[in-house]
Amino acid sequence: MTETTRIRLAIPNKGRIAQPIREIVEKSGIHLVETGGRNLIAKTVDPGIEVLFARPIDIPEYVANGAADIGVTGHDMVMERGSVVNELLDLRMGRARLVVAVPEEAEVNAVADLAGAKVATEFPNITRAYFERFGVGVTIVPVGGACEATPHLGIADAIVDLTSTGTTLQAMRMRILGEVLTTTTWVIANPDSLQQKRQKIDEVLLALESVVRAKGQCYIMMNASRDVLPEIEELLPGLGGPTVMDVASHDGLVAVHAVVAEERVYQLITRLKQAGARDILVMSIERMIP
Ligand SMILES: Nc1ncnc2c1ncn2[C@@H]1O[C@H](COP(=O)(O)OP(=O)(O)OP(=O)(O)O)[C@@H](O)[C@H]1O
Ligand SMILES: O=P(O)(O)OC[C@H]1O[C@H](OP(=O)(O)OP(=O)(O)O)[C@H](O)[C@@H]1O
Ligand SMILES: [Mg+2]
């Protein structure tokens, strides 16, 4: 009997990317078998995959030192920890920019004007390296959150923090001086695990990637008479064009199936109807494997 390869996947236990990552993992078919509220390790339906819940900032190190074989966390976290891991797959979520910002009224116009300033951040290592690269001497004030409040509290002159919608910076009346990096959520791997457990890791990657690929796409099905087919096909430039099938016992009637971008569906339905399509069904796609 051959022994099954076992891998441990680390995912965030809290924070804003925790739930979306959990959803991607579930949709990929790696269903978690609940092991109680505060349990930090969960079994999955696959006896070869175990899930470890950890703080996003700790995941790069857990993966680098082998406590987990693969993990999912922000690219910013990997950079901050400087961990030696392989970044394998961009999940294209958790997109944010790490920026240098100052209160609107501050008399500075560029990063170079911050020489001698106190800079509060949850990313002390990235921030230190950034200002060193500019040759600007600053004092780093490490904080664990609510960074935007620090200039108003007199704790810092500037901040290096994440922004996505810009709501927090705007609410705290701060303006951006420079961009340090952009981040998204990545699947990362331990380099040794990648060598020794490649097949199992690839299997997990394929499953996760299929969910990412399906995101924002849906499957549309309709019936139409064959003579209006060219017009309908023109409206559906899908993945390799639509699939067209004869409808049994309905002479001249065809079924047309295609994958389309979710954002197009609303307008598309009206146009398809005008072109003569009927019995239109729109379905969400869970996974797409090319
Ligand atoms: N505003 C944002 N928009 C998009 N992605 C973000 C944003 N803030 C953080 N992220 C991503 O989410 C990751 C985890 O950050 P988050 O702040 O949610 O975790 P945390 O600090 O552990 O939780 P909390 O702030 O609730 O204590 C970050 O490393 C980053 O990649
Ligand atoms: O541009 P926005 O959409 O407003 O997002 C930016 C905010 O999101 C993150 O905060 P988080 O929710 O993690 O809280 P925290 O500051 O306590 O970490 C980040 O630290 C910013 O404060
Ligand atoms: Mg946070």
Automatic annotation (TrEMBL):
Gene Ontology MF terms in the entry: ATP binding; ATP phosphoribosyltransferase activity; magnesium ion binding
GO cellular component entries: cytoplasm
Top enzyme class: transferase
TM stretches of this protein: none
Localisation: Cytoplasm
Cofactor: Mg(2+)
Pfam families: HisG, HisG_C
The keyword Lipid metabolism is assigned to this record: no
Residue stretches making up the ATP phosphoribosyltransferase catalytic domain: 55-209
EC number: 2.4.2.17
Keywords: Amino-acid biosynthesis, ATP-binding, Cytoplasm, Glycosyltransferase, Histidine biosynthesis, Magnesium, Metal-binding, Nucleotide-binding, Transferase
Principal localisation: cytoplasm
GO biological process, one term: L-histidine biosynthetic process
Regulation of its function: Feedback inhibited by histidine.
Catalysed reaction equations from the record: 1-(5-phospho-beta-D-ribosyl)-ATP + diphosphate = 5-phospho-alpha-D-ribose 1-diphosphate + ATP
Record InterPro entries: ATP-PRT_HisG_long, ATP_PRibTrfase_cat, ATP_PRibTrfase_CS, ATP_PRibTrfase_HisG, HisG_C, N-reg_PII-like_a/b, N-reg_PII/ATP_PRibTrfase_C
Pathway: Amino-acid biosynthesis; L-histidine biosynthesis; L-histidine from 5-phospho-alpha-D-ribose 1-diphosphate: step 1/9
Residue span, Histidine biosynthesis HisG C-terminal domain: 214-287
Function of the molecule: Catalyzes the condensation of ATP and 5-phosphoribose 1-diphosphate to form N'-(5'-phosphoribosyl)-ATP (PR-ATP). Has a crucial role in the pathway because the rate of histidine biosynthesis seems to be controlled primarily by regulation of HisG enzymatic activity.
Record's protein name: ATP phosphoribosyltransferase
Organism: Methanofollis fontis
Taxonomic lineage of the native organism: Archaea, Methanobacteriati, Methanobacteriota, Stenosarchaea group, Methanomicrobia
